[in-house]
Amino acid sequence: MSFDQAEKLLSKDNLSHEYKFKWDSVKSELKNEFKSIIWNSWVGPLSFLNYCDSELTILTTSELIKNRIERQYYDQIFLQSKKYFADLNKIKFLVNENNEKNFSDKNNSQNHLVKKKKYDDYDVISFVSGVSKSLNKSYTFENFVVGESNDLAFYSAKKVVQKFSSNYNPLFLYGGVGLGKTHLLNSIAWEIQKDSKRKFIYMSAERFMYQFIKSIKFKETITFKEQFRSADVFMIDDLQFIGGKESTQQEFFHLFNDLIDMKKQIIITADKSPNDILDIDLKLKSRLSGGLVVDILPTDNLLRTKIIKKKLMEKNSFLESEIIKFLADKITNNVRELEGAINKIIAYSDLMKINLDLNKVQELLVDFLRTNIKVTSIQDIQFHVSKYFNINFSDLCSKSRSRFISRPRQIAMYLSKELTEFSYPDIGKLFGGKDHTTVIHAVNKIKNLYLIDKKIKKDIENLTLTLKS
Ligand code: ADP
Ligand code: MG
Questions:
Q1: Distance 371 CA to ligand 2 centre (A)
Q2: Which has the closest alpha carbon to 423: 406, 436, 405?
Q3: 87 phi and psi, to 5 degrees?
């Protein structure tokens, strides 16, 4: 790609400024992570080109830098970037040809020699590095509040740390979003880290997939396997993400069997039980259920109250019991939202230096309260969406691909996912027997448009308001 082409790409993208800004933040974090010699030669010269479809495109100044970055520093860069580009899947590095050309013109054949030498000199590529950096310091057993809905998960997590038993292998923890799965997995990792003799690998399924693909790309699948097999404990978060990814699943399945045979401990989390994860091979399902499968249920009022009190204590803050009760009654979706709500009101009262009353709390939490009331009927959503866009109710369930119909249909699917408890397949069925992938596509599409398209944002807000009132 020439520099001109690159510039064109840049100006086309309205969001570019924002993305570029994010990339600058990624870089300033990376700067702290690398030694200055590495920073100056390899990472510092990277520049932002484009972000689109979950793919970040970064310009390098030479082929040499590109290769080095891809082989040795990709993971670290990816980890940091993911913090700012939440739905990031991949980083692509392109050589800025103008630069490369100047460089090789000046150095001509000698340059190739240098390139060749460095290229052969690589350290062993790591597929399991950067693990402890992704652990959250406050996700420990001490900070986990136990109640009826999560006690089995909590005690089995503690148990696997203490003692290996095939009855708990694998330990499979599952439950809805924001209910503490990652927190428990981190807690296990922290405990294991105290004992230096045991080696663990902790990673999200997404990352596992990425590492696997990387190993294929670099023809290093054997190293990949060996590195994973060398761990005593293997933890994998959000397993549902390997659903539908055939080759990654196969690889995971083999690795899983190897580790179990070698009597290594495996701990897995997912949003659903092994049987309910979509598009997972039957053999794998049955192996996943072979140890202990434990669910984390939605919180009850008592647990929410305990969690609120604990969080207040951690923050050295105080709230009237009336407000605590209000929060426990109203913010019921999950613990993450509950934490968000607490943070918001504490920040407000700290900044304004006032004691909050219930009215003020209600006002502050209007967004939280809105998402915590669930409308139950998809028909309701379809009815209001078709009325709003002035199309027929039946069109929403038809196969029509006309933009006039398909966009409102996508919006209705999106709202169904946001406002009801129905799963993707269920929603698909209720929209005239559509495949779940169609629903996932629609939901993601609208999520993205919501961020960049003012009209769609307004439509969704209007509709949400109508549906909630
Ligand atoms: P999940 O992985 O299930 O989506 P997380 O583990 O990320 O959820 O939890 C979301 C947030 O809620 C985290 O900040 C976590 O510390 C907090 N949290 C969840 N359950 C509890 C609990 N029982 N006690 C204390 N904090 C909790
Ligand atoms: Mg999680």
A1: 20
A2: 436
A3: -95, 25
CB neighbours (10 Å) of residue 295? 16
How many angstroms separate the Cα of 116 from the Cα of each of 109, 120, 122, 220, 417? 11, 6, 11, 19, 52
Query: What per-residue confidence (pLDDT) applies to 423?
Result: 86
Q: Angle at the Cα of 143 (from 138 to 149), degrees rounded to 5?
A: 125
Query: In whole angstroms, what is the distance from residue 299 CA to residue 213 CA?
Result: 37
| Residue 335 Cα to ligand 1 middle (Å) | 6
The type of residue at 315 is: K
Structure tokens belonging to residue 440: 């996932």
Mutate to test the pocket of ligand 1, among 268, 306, 336 (most ligand atoms within 8 A of CB): 336
User: Which pTM was predicted?
Assistant: 0.61
Structural domains of the chain ordered from first start = 11-122 (3.30.300.180), 151-296 (3.40.50.300), 301-371 (1.10.8.60), 378-468 (1.10.1750.10)
User: In Å, how far from its chain's centre is CA 263?
Assistant: 30
Point out the ligand 1 atom lying closest to the alpha carbon of residue 271.
Answer: 3
Among protein residues, the one whose CA lies closest to atom 26 of ligand 1: 144
CA separation for the pair 186, 63 (Å, rounded): 38
**Higher per-residue confidence, 212 vs 3:** 212
The per-residue pLDDT for range 81-131, each reduced to its tens digit, is 988 998 888 999 998 876 544 333 334 434 433 333 333 334 467 788 756
In tens, the pLDDT along 285-310 reads 999 999 999 999 888 889 999 999 99
Taking residues 424-429, what's their average pLDDT?
Answer: 89
Q: How far is CA 36 from the centre of its chain?
A: 30
Listed in order, strand segments (DSSP E) in 238-342 are: 265-270, 292-296
Radius of gyration of the chain measured on its C-alpha atoms: 25
Task: List residues near ligand 1 (CB under 6 A).
Answer: 139, 143-145, 150, 175, 177-183, 307, 335-336, 339
Summarize pLDDT for 389-404 with one digit per residue, the tens: 998 878 888 888 888 9
Residue nearest to atom 11 of ligand 1 (CA): 336
pLDDT in tens, 302-344: 999 999 999 999 999 999 999 999 999 889 888 999 999 999 9
Q: What is the pLDDT of residue 333?
A: 83
